[in-house]
Amino acid sequence: MENTNTKPVKKMMLILSKATIENVYACFILANGARMEGIESEIFFTFFGLEAIQKKKLDHLHVATVGNPAMHIPTILGGLPGMEALATKMMKSEMEKLDIPPVGEFLEMLTASGTKLWACKLAIDMFKIKEEDLVDDVDGVLTVGGFYERAQGDGTHLLFI
Hints:
Layout: E1 11-16, H1 21-36, E2 40-45, H2 75-78, H3 83-97, H4 103-113, E3 116-120, H5 121-126, E4 140-142, H6 144-150, E5 156-160
Parallel strand pairs: 1-2, 1-5, 2-3, 3-4
Helix pairs in contact: 1-4
């Protein structure tokens, strides 16, 4: 099938709703890849995705072992004590071999490259999170409407992770 869309991607607006390691790194790699291609990128952290930008939580993210078909293990095994910790340790080890930085360092790299980081106001209020609980690199707290305003314009793509 021929691609008839010839308009370039100008901005990637990524929405991160879950702070499992696999989701956080997928989001960060896509945002970083956009910046490397000269494409603007912004990340909107909502619901449990907020854990990726909370000072006390970002170094303690885990791999989802229960209900994750990509793990190729029965759900009952994924729920065994220690399974999540083992899977997380193995994934972090593999990422280290590929020189993929830890979450906090990756956030610093993203902001240094120009990626904007936004916390969702509704989720902040719902979980009673204070702005001082967030990493300093967060650009601010936005409502959903504020996020959509930032997404205006030709060449903007939204991606939910």
